Amino acid sequence: MQTVADLLSVSRWTVYRLIWDGYLHSVQVGRCRRVPQGALDAYLGGLLGEVA
User: Fold this and answer.
1) Which pLDDT belongs to residue 37?
2) Quick one: pLDDT at residue 52?
3) pTM, whole model, 2 decimals?
4) What is the CA radius of gyration of the chain?
5) CA distance linking residue 5 with residue 15, whole number of Å
């Protein structure tokens, strides 16, 4: 989660809120939550689509 937060330059809690609100998809592996690269790319692509 921290890596995604670093890539987006936001806090860890912002990443969790994006997941809870359904903007960013993730998977749970044991007790850890992971964001696949494709989900991050889709989220960023959606942001770029809003700007264009």
Assistant:
1) 94
2) 59
3) 0.82
4) 11
5) 6
Give the Cα separation of 52 and 50 in Å (integer): 6
Token code pair at residue 6: 């670093």
Closest listed residue to residue 46, CA positions, set 23, 25, 15 = 23
> Could you count the other beta carbons within 10 Å of the beta carbon of residue 24?
21
CA distance 1 to 7: 10
3-class SS string, 8-40? HCCCHHHHHHHHHCCCCCCEEECCEEECCHHHH
| Distance separating alpha carbons of residues 25 and 37, to the nearest angstrom | 10
pLDDT, one tens digit per residue, over 8-49 is 999 999 999 999 999 999 999 999 999 999 999 999 999 888
